[in-house]
Every structure is written in C-alpha cells, then in structure tokens.
C-alpha cells in the first residue's frame, strides 16, 4: 500500500524522535494519533517552526489528538546502547505509552522500532505525514524544556540556548569545564574532553 493509502487508514500513529545529534541530554520520542474530526492547521517538521508557533501547535496537539505520548532514553542509556538503538527504544516507549492502541505506526526515517502493531518507515515523514509532524513537534517542545531545566542543574554550558548541540560555545565550555552528568560520554567530543580533563588531573603540573 502506498503512503496515501496508509494515511487513509483509521487509528494511525505518527512517531518521531528528536535529539540524536546533541552531546548532552536525552533523546526524546513522541507518538501521536490525530483526530480527523479536529484538524490542526500548520503541522510541519518542528525544525521549520519558530519557538512560539511550535509551542502553540504543541498545546493544540495535546488537546485535540486522540492520544499522544512521550518516550525518553537517558544519556546513560544512549552510552550503553548507542544513539540509534536508544532512539528506536525511545520511539518504542512512546508508542507503548499511548492510551489508545494504534492500528498502524508511521515512523519518521528509514527504520522502525519493534512494535506490537504493523509499522512503516517514511523518509522525510515529518514533512509528509501530519501525525509524524505532530510527533516531531511534541517531542521537540518537551526536549527543549528538559534542556532548559538541565541548564539550571548544570550551569556554564549554555544548554538552554543550544540544547546540547556541538556549537562552538558548547565545545569551548566542554574544554573549560569538562563533561557534566548529563553529557553523552560515548560521543567523541565529550570523550575527548573527559580524557583531557583526566590527563590534567593525572599530571597536575600541566
């Protein structure tokens, strides 16, 4: 069945994740079943929306959707599993947490997590499938708020501004402060900063 046919099926959940690229914080996934009787205008890839518009749509999705849910994998889980497997697990957790069991899951990207219902990957799904766009928005808004909270717990890195992505400001803070408890030590820039800091501790004269 083609994508148009899949979209016409009842009880379709869109699934997406955010936070694969950052050096800090969790990866967050969302699953959303939209209500065809309560359409939401303006759904698109969360990265193409401004903050105010994204937050307004997030609120509308939470009110009008048949069901929505979040799934999270922590930095420790990311380091243990690797980022791909952690992303798939977060998506699985989001779908499993839905109050309404979907008949089908449409997943952004080229791979699907293990689910209890049929699932199909959709390349660029966050731009093509409204339910995936909605999942992208819900996941992005939630993760951004988590990173703002983490900025208060781990000051000095600017996590509220860059959300953990490897910006020059973030990399400079890593070099200056070393990794925090919310950093992903399996990611190369964090691992290098950790090793450099350990070297300075071992050789205090440097």
Description:
By secondary structure, the chain is of the alpha/beta class. It has two domains: about 5-155, Ribonuclease H-like superfamily/Ribonuclease H (Nucleotidyltransferase, domain 5); about 160-200, no CATH class. The protein contains nine helices and five strands. It has helices spanning about 5, 50-65, 75-80, 85-95, 125-130, 130-155, 160, 170-175, 190-200; strands spanning about 10-20, 25-35, 65-75, 105-110, 120. Strands 3-2-1-4-5 form a five-stranded mixed beta sheet. A hairpin with an 8-residue loop joins strand 1 and strand 2 (about 25-35). Helix 8 (about 170-175) runs parallel beside helix 9. It is elongated. The N and C termini lie far apart (about 65 Å). The mean pLDDT is about 95.
Which class do the helix and strand fractions yield? alpha/beta
Give the C-alpha Rg. 19 Å
**How far apart are the termini?**
64 Å
Q: Tell me, what is the CATH class of the largest domain?
A: Alpha Beta
Main sheet specs = 5 strands, mixed
Task: Summarize, please.
The chain is α/β, with parallel strands linked by helices.
Features:
alpha/beta; about 15% strand; 9 helices; about 210 residues; elongated; 2 domains; about 45% helix; five-stranded mixed β-sheet; Nucleotidyltransferase, domain 5
Annotate the secondary structure layout.
Elements: H1 3-7, E1 12-18, E2 27-33, H2 51-64, E3 67-73, H3 75-81, H4 83-96, E4 104-108, E5 119-122, H5 125-128, H6 130-153, H7 159-162, H8 168-177, H9 188-202
Parallel strand pairs: 1-4, 4-5
Antiparallel strand pairs: 1-2, 2-3
Helix pairs in contact: 2-6, 3-4, 8-9
């Amino acid at each position: 069945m083609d994508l148009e046919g899949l979209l016409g099926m009842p009880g379709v959940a869109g699934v997406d994740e955010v936070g694969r690229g950052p050096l800090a914080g969790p990866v967050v996934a969302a699953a959303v079943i939209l209500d065809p009787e309560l359409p939401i205008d303006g759904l698109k890839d969360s990265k193409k929306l401004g903050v105010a518009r994204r937050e307004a749509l997030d609120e509308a999705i939470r009110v009008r959707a048949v069901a929505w849910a979040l799934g999270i994998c922590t930095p420790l889980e990311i380091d243990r599993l690797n980022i791909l497997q952690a992303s798939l697990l977060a998506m699985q957790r989001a779908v499993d947490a839905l109050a309404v069991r979907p008949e089908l899951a449409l997943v952004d990207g080229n791979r699907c997590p293990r689910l209890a219902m049929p699932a199909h990957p959709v390349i660029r799904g966050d731009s093509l499938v409204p339910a995936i766009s909605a999942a992208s928005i819900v996941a992005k808004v939630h993760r951004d708020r988590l990173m703002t909270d983490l900025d208060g717990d781990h000051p000095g890195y600017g996590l509220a501004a860059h959300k953990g992505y490897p910006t020059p400001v973030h990399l400079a803070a890593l070099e200056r402060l070393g990794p925090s408890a919310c950093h992903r030590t399996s990611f190369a820039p964090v691992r290098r900063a950790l090793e450099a800091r350990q070297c300075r501790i071992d050789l205090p004269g440097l």
